Amino acid sequence: MLEDRYDVVIVGSGPGGAAAAQAMRGHGLNSVMIERRKLPRYKMCSGIVFPRARKLVADDFGPLPKYALAEPAMVHGNRLFLNLEDPAITAPFSVFDDDPELGQEALNVKRSEFDHWLSCQSGIPIVDGCRFSELRRDGDDLVLELSRDGDEVEVRTRYLVGADGTQSAVRLELSRSFEQGVRLIPNYEEWYTGNIDLEPGWFYQFFDRTITGFFATVFHKDGYLIVVTGSRQEEPVRDYFQRFVAHLKERHGLVIDARVRQSGCGVHDMAATGNYFLGEGNVLLTGEAGGFNRCAEGITSALVTGRAAGESIVRAFNSGGSALASYSDAVAPEIEACAKVYQVIEAALGFNPFTRN
């Protein structure tokens, strides 16, 4: 059940929302997390928890339960195909984050179970099947219009955390003009049973312009082969996908027994172009909602910025200061970390996948 008033409402039950909730835990804030879909929900994502994110999860949430892990449980690194002819280049995760305290391997998780476990670990009440639709201000209150089970509900809160992903409804409510400058990159995936001559336990990335307008990937999860490609917004992603699958069959021995899932999503170019939107007033945007990702790897940034949002709200609640000012200072290192990853990628490829022609 939703209450009429909260200190904090978090929109979105992914890693960013969970990290914000975890950071506020035990500080006396009456908080709730809302999620528009029924939980646990599927999210289109590689589900690869990079070493930095892996450490954040262990430090802030504890050991990951086995049911949230996929097989193979460990991912050793990246293998990059810069064109259709040359062999792959092996790139360890340390290329993107060389902190010596981090391990060299990533976790392969089931995003539905992983995200739900994180949110439950935070101890915050979760209301799923609840859609955020409108925001207005009434004095010091933020008034949220929500819909659940066909009913319209009005909830008041002092602080709002938008952790609702790439196409954030909270961000859109804050500034429709800003949204016009955000470029979306369509991505499409299919899950197969079958075989391919690519060793499990690696994240395979393909950059040749004939098979992707962004970059394409192959990875293994629980006996399935997951094939993904992206395109520029004005280009047909399915055409690229068909060419990518044909290439995998010709050069990498892909044999498809059955297609078991197909999904699509959009990835924005905000971090790639330095176009962040951290929030406004007592509204903070975390993770993809605020523009954060490390070249399409969003879990790390979501955990970092979610924690920063939660800690900033606690400080502001106790001191009466500005949550947004505190948050802006706290996420500055993550903006630098994102920029570093894009610099490494561009130096290796000669272009930025998010802005390529």
* Termini gap: 49 Å
How much of the sequence is in beta strands?
Answer: 25-35%
CATH class term of the largest domain: Alpha Beta
Radius of gyration: 20 Å
User: What is the string of SSEs from the N terminus onward?
Assistant: EHEEHEEEEHEEEEHHEEEEHEEEHHH
Q: Please tell me the overall pLDDT.
A: 96
Number of helices: 9
Decide which structural class fits the backbone.
alpha/beta
Question: For this entry, what is the oligomeric state of its chains?
Answer: single chain
The main β sheet shows up as: 8 strands, mixed
What does this structure look like?
The mean pLDDT is 96. The protein folds into two domains: 203 residues, 3-Layer(bba) Sandwich (FAD/NAD(P)-binding domain), CATH 3.50.50; 85 residues, D-Amino Acid Oxidase, Chain A, domain 2 (2-Layer Sandwich). The chain is globular. The strands form three sheets. Strands 1, 2, 8, 9, 10, 11, 17 and 18 form an eight-stranded mixed sheet that branches. Strand 14 and strand 15 form a beta hairpin. It has nine helices and 18 strands. It has 357 residues and is α/β, with parallel strands linked by helices. Helix 1 packs parallel to helix 8, helix 2 crosses helix 8 and helix 8 packs antiparallel against helix 9. Helix content is 31%, strand content 31%. The termini are far apart.
